[in-house]
Amino acid sequence: MTGIAAGFCQQQCIAATWDCRVNPLRDPRGFTLVEIFVALLIFFLGIVPFLNLQLFTVGSNSAANQLTAATNLAESKMEELLGMPYNDLLSAEIIPQAIDGFQVNWSRNQNTPINDTTTITVTVSWTDKDDIPHSISFTCIKAK
After folding, report:
1. Which domains, from first to last, does the chain contain?
2. Reported pTM
């Protein structure tokens, strides 16, 4: 090698060595085991809250589905009762129904709040997966 070429190569080697010390990402030896463990620790500390959030969201979605199903049952029963003629409603037998894990019940109060009206209350009860009881009630007034 000539002197100029040798000087140029030496400058490149010095520059490469200096660059490796300043920027460890360009180090041809790679990462140390400690650096990898620290990176994994930071990653898992960041991802664990999102996993907990996902579990909470799934549970909330299940509760919302149950509430929606109970509301639909109560609304359906209320519309059935409101669609009956007034005198048939007064003579109808009150029979609780069990539908897909929900208990549907209804009651009537004649001449409440005023004469010639009947207050109808439909209640749907259920127990969630944690054995916690829930219920929803709809109340309507039907006139004669």
Report:
1. 31-143 (2.20.25.110)
2. 0.64
